[in-house]
Amino acid sequence: MNKNFAVLLTGLLLLPQIAAAKLFKAEEFTLDNGLRVVVIENHKAPLIKHMMWYNAGAVDEKYGRGGSAHLLEHLMFRGTKLVKDGEYNRIMHENGADSNAFTSYDMTVYHQFADISRLEALMALEADRMQNLNFDKKAFETEQKIVYQERKQVIENNPAAPFSERLNLLLWGNSPYGHPVTGFSEEIMALTADDVRDFYKSYYAPNNAVLVLAGDIDAAAAKKLAQKYYGKIPEKEVIKQETASESQQFKEHLQMKLPQINTPKLVYKYLLPDSSGLKGSIYDYIVLAEYLGGGQTSALYRELVDIRKIAVGVSASYSFNAAANSVFTVSAIPAPEVSQLSLKMALREARAQALQNLTPEKLNKVKKKMVADLVFANDNPEDAAYWLGYMLINGFSLEEAKNYADNIKAVTADGVLRAAKEVFLHSSEAEGELLPQAASKGDKQDD
Question: How far apart are CA 394 and CA 406, in angstroms?
């Protein structure tokens, strides 16, 4: 999940009294083949956001076949039995549509944004590649090399990437969540067309997906079109791999000194139960993250950056997109000449102070900001589709999503403090320190 969206998600709720419980006008229906369709009406402009969310991602890959889900995402833009290789992007361009996709641990999502008059074309193409993907040898080898180069350029050439992947592995251990979504380079090049075809046949099915339509359309029109283009695709038996939740409590520490690192970083990751096993409400944890480190008005940022000037950046987030466990993260970047030890101590003190000084008045300000952010987001079909699709694919019902603001409003200071106790006292912890590698004697140091 990208960083901007994580901020949006955590910064979600508190409508002024006008908007009450329902954040947007949304309806849902399910086709006979199991495809769940959600429609968000927004008639301010003749535009449509079309998003197909598959309940399948990197955690569903077979052991040793890392990168299958991501490579399949690339191949979905190649040919099918009906559309020649290279035609998909050309058709999108000619129809004035923005088209893209992303792969995560638990989901793979394909999305387009276009004039409402192009919706049928979008649906026809998406329905076609849901069932008729062509695993041409040349196309497969081309995309395999592209994915391999992406891994090299975006991940392995990023000085901080080894730290992030190692810390993730330390947190998750043998769980699939400890494995990079991209797969490792050697895994990518070892994949065969049969490996990726197997993933496609196992998980790309209407009964394992959610279609979100946001924009200038109503549910009746959407149902007619969805039935026309998706209704005849047969459902499949989808067997998801179960990921056991981590139950034993642990504390781990990682310190990495890497070349080309100019900015140190301190990261704490706390492993919590999934949303159904949390003590208290999931909304308590979402608000806790926003209060502590949800932006430049958050408690930790104001104390460590604005007041003490001991850090140049502080953030906190809560991720509940994992089927097995959820993760609370706090990170900080020290100001120049500030040691990691000083930053650790200051962060601990500021956190304790922020929780001790939490009042209903302070909490209300945080919640109002969260709601205001969501209200603005829901005014945009793209943001609304993104947010709602994410909630639904992670197990929220449509009614829960529509009532999200009221659930945030119901969060109390006591609930936030209980959540903080679970995070910082009762959860497993992985502490990571990223430091510049000191130059060896005789090495030239940059000024």
Answer: 19
